[in-house]
Amino acid sequence: MVIGLHQRTAPVAFRERYWISENRRLEALTQLSQAEGIEEIVVLGTCNRTEFFLWASDPTLAVNSVLRFLTAEYGLKLCEWKHFYRLLDEMAVLHIFRVVSSLDSMVLGEPQIVSQVKNAWAQAQKAGSTGRFLDAVLQKALTVSKRVRNETAIGNSAVAVPYAAVELAKHVLGTLENKRVLVMGAGKMSELSARYLVNHGASSVCVINRTLEHAQELAATLGGSAARFEDRWEHLAADIVISSTSCPHYVLTRDEAESITSQRGSRPLVLVDIALPRDVDPTVREIEATFLYDLDDRERVVAHNSGEREAAAIEAQKIVEDEAQGFRRQTFIGTRGADDRRAARAFGRDLPTGTGVFQARVRAVFQVPGCIIRGSCSAHYSQNCWLAGSRTQRVSGEGGTRADGRSGSSAAPP
C-alpha cells in the first residue's frame, strides 16, 4: 500500500506542512511500525513528495493509523484529505516502480530520486521497520530503474533544478554573463544549480552554510568563496540567490528583503527557493525589483520543456508495467490465499472463490469512517497519459493553509 502526496496533488504551501525531515522520519518510522494494521513501513520525503510505503496486515487499520499520525503530528484536517492518494496491491507496486524510475518526478528522468529512495530504505532498515516484503519491492524497484535508464533515453536530458534555475534567472536578467551567485546551503541541489549557472556564464559564486567547512568544500569545487551563515546578508551584492537549506523557518523575511533591496537601487534580484519547507517568505515577491521563484514555479518552467523526455517515458512506462505485473505474480501468489482469508475475517463473511486479495483490500481500505469514496481515476495518474484508467481512490475535501500560518502564492515563471 502507498499513502502520500506530491507535486501534482498539492501545492508547495501544502506540501511543506507534511514534509518530514530526516530526524523526524526516524520518529515516524518508530511510531508507525508499532501502529495497528502496519507490518512494515518506509517513509520517503523529498522536496516534491511525502509518501508512506506500507505492508499492511489490515488495510483499514493501516490507513487509520497513518491518518491518526498525520492528524496528531501535522494537524491534518478532514477537509484536506483530497491531497492524499492511496494505492493498493499491484497499483502500489507499480507506483513505487514509477517513482524509483523517475516516471513520477516533476522532471522525467531526474536522477536524484534513486539516492533518495535508497536513503529512505536504509533509514527504515536501521529503524527495523522494514522486512522481507518491502525489502523485496524496493530491491526490485531499483533493478527496474536501472533497466529503464539502460534501455531508454529517459535520463539523457534530466537536469531538473539546475535547468529551472538558469531559465528563471535568464528570464529576468537576460544573460548570465558576469552575474554573481549566492548559494545558501551546501547540499547536492545547491551544488548542481550553482555549477549549471557558472557553466552558463555566471562569473562568481559565494557559498554560505551553517557549517563553514562544508561551505568551503563546495566553494573549492566551484572556484568560489565561502562565508558563515550569520554573515549571509553582507553578500547580497549577488544577482542570483539559490536557497536550499534545511531550516524549519524562513531564512529571508520580508523585512530583511526590503532592507536589502533598498541598498541595491533598481538592480534586480533573482531568488530561487528550492527548499522545502521554503526558505524565503513568499510575500517577498511583492517587493519591487525582487523576483522570487519556488518549487511550484520550477515545475511550470520544466513543463514547457518535457517533450523529449515524454517520448522516452512511453517506452519506459511499458517496461515498468511489465515488471510490476511479473513481480506481483512471483511475489504475492503464494500469500494470496492466506490474505483472502484474513480479509474475509475482517468483513465477518466468506469471500467468493477467485475474488482475490486485491479486490478484498480495495473494499476494506475504503471503508474508513468519514471517507467519501469515488471510483474514478486518480488525478495524479490521469494527468499522465501512460496510466489513464488506473484504479486509484482519492478522498474529497478542501485545502488548507500551513499550521504555522505561513502561506503564499506562486509568481508565474516564464
Q: Outline, from the CA principal axes?
A: globular
What is the CATH architecture descriptor of the largest domain? 2-Layer Sandwich
Q: Output the structural class.
A: alpha/beta
Total DSSP helices: 15
The overall strand count is 11
CATH fold label of the largest domain: Beta Polymerase, domain 2
Query: Could you tell me the strand content as a percent range?
Result: 5-15%
Order of helices and strands: EHHEEHEHHHHEHEHEEHEEHHHHHE
Number of domains: 2
Provide the spatial order of strands within the biggest beta sheet: 7-6-5-8-9-10
Question: Largest sheet at a glance?
Answer: 6 strands, parallel
CATH superfamily of the largest domain, by name, is: Glutamyl-tRNA reductase, N-terminal domain
Radius of gyration: 23 Å
Quick rundown:
The protein is α/β, with parallel strands linked by helices and 414 residues long. The protein has helices at residues 12-15, 22-33, 59-74, 89-100, 112-127, 132-151, 160-173, 188-199, 212-222, 254-262, 295-303, 307-332, 336-347, 356-365, 379-382, and strands spanning 2-6, 38-45, 49-56, 85-87, 180-184, 204-209, 225-228, 240-243, 269-273, 290-293, 393-394. The protein folds into two domains: 2-151 and 333-394, Glutamyl-tRNA reductase, N-terminal domain (Beta Polymerase, domain 2); 160-303, Rossmann fold.
Attribute tags:
globular; six-stranded parallel β-sheet; Rossmann fold; 15 helices; Beta Polymerase, domain 2
